[in-house]
Fold this protein.
Amino acid sequence: MKAAIFYATREGQGKRVAEHIAEDLRAIRFDVDVLNVKDSTRWIDTHLYQLAFVVASVHLGHHEPEIVQFVKSHRADLVRLGARSCR
């Protein structure tokens, strides 16, 4: 099964969480892509995946704008994938 972990981070904690989830999934034989939505300059093809996770830290009560925009833009696909949110 192919999974995606979409994340946004300011200080690196979100990336560490995303990598930890990826490591656990790979241990049970998932094919996992870890994607920083801030660095993505192209449209992400969510149809490549059967499962998705969204990882975003909270600063001063708000998520990073990149992850908010990503979720809004890909909402239907994330619902289809049964996206899990990890804070």
Summary: The chain has a mean pLDDT of 87. DSSP finds three helices and six strands in the chain. Helices lie at 13-27, 65-73, 75-81. The chain has one domain: 2-86.
